[in-house]
Amino acid sequence: MFQIRIHGRGGQGVVTAAELLSLAAFDEGRYAQAFPSFGSERMGAPVVSFCRIDDHEIRVREPVMEPDALIIVDPTLLHQVDVFGGCKPDGFILINTAKGFDELGLGEFVKDFRHERLLTVPAGELAREHTGRAVANAALLGGFAALSGLISLDAVARAIRERFTGAVGEGNVAAAQAAHAWVAEEMRELSGATAG
Amino acid sequence: MLRQVEGSRAVAEAVALCRPEVICAYPISPQTHIVENLSQLVKTGELSPCEFVNVESEFAAMSVAIGASATGARAYTATASQGLLYMTEALYNASGLGLPIVMTVANRAIGAPINIWNDHSDSMSQRDSGWIQLYAETNQEALDLHIEAFRLAEELSTPVMVCMDGFILTHAVERLEIPDQEQVDAFLPPFQPRQVLDPGEPISIGAMVGPEAFMEVKYLAHAKQMQALELIPEIAADFRGAFGRDSGGLIRCYRAEDAETIVVALGSVLGTIKDTIDELREQGVKIGVLGISSFRPFPLDAVREALGHAQRVVVLEKALAVGIGGIVAANVRMALAGIQLHGYTVIAGLGGRPITKTSLHRLFTDAAADRLEPLTFLDMDWDVVNRELERMGSSRASGPHAENILRDVGPVAAGPV
Amino acid sequence: MKAPAIRFYQTGSFAVGNRLLDPEQRSVQAGEQRTNSITCGHRACQGCGEALGARYALDAAMRACNGQMIAANATGCLEVFSTPYPETSWRIPWIHSLFGNAPAVSTGIAAALRAKGREDVRVVGQGGDGGTVDIGMACLSGMFERNDDVLYICYDNEAYMNTGVQRSGATPPAARTATTQAVGPEPGNVFGQGKSAPLIAMAHEIPYVATATVAELRDLEAKVQTAMEIRGARYLHVFVPCPLGWGSASKDTIRIARLAKESGIFPVFEARDGEVTDVSKIRRQIPVEEYLRPQKRFAHLFKPEVRTDVIARIQAGADRNIRRFGLLGRGADKEGAVLVGTCADQRTGTCAGPGQATCGLASQEEDDESGR
């Protein structure tokens, strides 16, 4: 079972992100469970959502305590909320920002982590470019697909289109594709691969 | 059809498949998505003929359902927590009159202090109302139970509430098999009322009954629930035949046959418990779990048979009978009358406090070693409690409890716990 | 449809005359085909205004909808005295659920009928003042707000009678009840409280609101008939004296109801969509004292001394009603009538002017003067 935890603020599509992730996994024939942390919902308040993916029925119902992957939609949360609680050193972390981990003041924290699994992507800017709004959730999922290989970009795109019709859907798919490409490129650079 | 869909949406679609004729509900978290979805289905005409009534309170919701059901219409409503309490008088009225209304209770804690998160205090508070109470372990079971519930209710002419954990199930998106209309139509025939308000054959419903007949009339509600003990497994068996899966029934055991320690619980926590049980079994602990699906009627015989061979029983429940302790535990104890074993009550998850595998692991290990107190409050912060008790002891004007404790606990940033 | 004011020449009054009338002009109760919706054998007190009002109202309703009707009843006197287990005096389909939910149960019945395509069957909800004005107010307001197709009838005897005469939101000022006793500096129910359910109904702007009394039973029947010709939420408030609770003589029920109207204590009117459309004028105004004296619930206003101060306040209340509803004077005389909207003739543009022979209300006045 793979467990993802998504952190953001109300209005940033954190709950939808988990849902889309679960839709993508379902699309690929897997079992997925997505649910929010059910806080008092208001714009701007910290929100957490969870997604579990597995190849058989998922029975557990607790919040994700030890995520295999973290997606941070809003980097302003980094030093305000314990977003990294339970995170493992071989976990994936994807942060919506143009800055690097060191710049974010996380260098020390992640020094023993697997660096090819820690990435940042300016998903908000990519989203604005393709949809006109800086709602980064769909884009981040495209990036996450590239980072983790857990789900395919195609599945992410299908999930987005199922949830959002017309131009909104297409814009978000484009943003997801852009973020996917970005992350894939970052990963190539990180691993020093020469194959182009 | 297999779909990845929110629990509430699935329940709404299952209810719609049952062809209700009157839906009357008042919004309350965490039931809102169910009724919103149903209102949409009615408004588009997908669910037709059906009247969706936007009522002004939960008391009105149940009252409208009573009027509708008495007129021979299949009636449905949904609520939670405070809303369930607000309709209490009408709950007893519906069961006393024998009206086969089906209602979803999206389990939520009862205030004060006000709390929108999951526990079982709401439905537990109405366990004596005469309503049949079925608890869903999963969203699949939640949607399936509604289909079974209409059939059960109408056959016995008694109302049924389907309980599903608020937020945990209602707001979870997962992979579910939604039946199609033909399947449901074959399983659930049109409503044939035992009593109906009809100008062609006028009757009076709701007479006053004095001491000379009240006991007999009241007993009928109990007699119907005793019949339900037979009917619930029959309907579940029929359901398995028609839809190909197990949903409902009275109880369900998991790795309990040879267990020395058996955990008893209701609702979604059973999933987390099962994962924990598997881990402990790998460590050689002989532990299993009994899930109770029908809480009213309480399956005394089935529970006794399932638990009787164990050395110890741990009842883990999401409600508290203030002043005494466990509710489910007391019912389970009744089933075990005369049998000697260690009984432990664990109150957990009140007001939505997450029940984690880590905590359960520790709890069950302690239980298996008989290291538990008879009554345990799982993951309770005793420091906080004791500080408030000290405050109360030192001054009469000690202030409101909730506010004092919240100040102690500190601002809660959204995190997993 | 307004009840024709039929002259009964022998006494100069407007009594219910049936045998002397053409069949079409007779009351529903006069007909052999009346449904006896609530039939004999019930346990109401002798002279019960509610039993009288319910019988007239429901039989009129049954005629208006060709016998296709279902009734929901709140807990209260009517429900209790009509269904002493194991008997029932109801000959129509009838349900009693709870005290405060009769309007909601009615809504449910109407919804079920609609879902089943049986909108030919009509719904009547009924209850006393307690079940309507107090504990049933939320459900009543909800039914009004949704414009559910229900006629709700309130039988107002101004207190919780069935439980022993306790004060309700409809209890008038100074009235003695078990919880507003005739003791202390302000004996009886206090001034400055209470609510007008008809005005509340009007505030919801429902298609039809009307008040009636058991002194004018033809008028009551006519209003029920009118109500049944309309679809949507309708409210009928019927003034029904209670001999037991009011301490009046059983034989005086109808007379006291008439005194309530003629003193201005109880305005009789109709309203549509939130505006008063028709008013039943006071034929000969009487001072409130004449209304109060026959009722022991007001006895403390006369013994040991006459409380002219309290009676004056009650009179002021009645005068205010007269002014607000235009209960005196001729049909087109709007002076001081604050609440009266336009009368039917004015609305349809057929009014020939004030005081003209064609004014229905004016001719009533003329009859009154000549018949004295």
Would you mind describing this structure in some detail?
The complex is a heterotrimer of chains A (196), B (417) and C (372). Chain A is of the alpha/beta class. Chain A has a single domain, classed as Pyruvate-ferredoxin Oxidoreductase, domain 3, CATH 3.40.920.10. Helix content of chain A is 37%, strand content 18%. Chain A has five helices and six strands, in the order βαβββββαααα. Chain A has helices at residues 14-27, 123-131, 137-148, 153-163, 166-191; strands spanning 2-9, 31-36, 46-54, 69-72, 92-96, 118-121. Chain A has a six-stranded mixed β-sheet, with helices on one face. Chain A is globular and about 45 Å long. Chain B is an alpha/beta fold and 417 residues long. Chain B has two domains: 2-243, Rossmann fold (3-Layer(aba) Sandwich); 251-377, Rossmann fold (3-Layer(aba) Sandwich). Helix content of chain B is 42%, strand content 18%. Chain B has helices at 7-17, 32-43, 58-70, 81-86, 88-97, 121-125, 139-156, 181-187, 214-243, 269-282, 300-307, 328-335, 357-368, 382-394, 401-409; strands spanning 2-6, 22-25, 51-54, 75-79, 102-107, 132-135, 160-165, 173-177, 204-205, 251-254, 261-265, 287-292, 294-296, 312-317, 342-347, 375-377. Chain B has a seven-stranded mixed β-sheet, sandwiched between helices. Chain B has a six-stranded mixed β-sheet with strand order 10-12-11-14-15-16, with helices on both faces. In chain B, strands 1-8 form a two-stranded antiparallel sheet. In chain B, α2 (32-43) links the parallel β2 (22-25) and β3. The relative contact order of chain B is 0.11. Chain C is α/β, with parallel strands linked by helices. Helices cover 34% and strands 11% of the residues of chain C. Chain C contains 13 helices and eight strands. Chain C has helices spanning 49-64, 77-82, 102-115, 129-134, 137-146, 197-203, 217-228, 243-246, 253-263, 288-292, 308-325, 344-348, 360-370, and strands at 69-73, 94-96, 122-128, 151-156, 208-213, 234-239, 269-272, 275-279. In chain C, strands 2-1-3-4-6-5-7-8 form an eight-stranded mixed β-sheet, sandwiched between helices. In chain C, α1 (49-64) packs parallel to α7 and α3 (102-115) packs parallel to α5 (137-146). The longest helix of chain C is centred in the C-terminal third of the chain and has 18 residues, at 308-325. Chain C is globular. Chain C starts with 48 loop residues before the first helix and ends with a helix. Chains in contact: A-B, B-C. The interface between A and B is medium-sized, with 35 and 32 residues. β2 of chain A pairs antiparallel with β8 (173-177) of chain B, so a sheet runs across the interface.
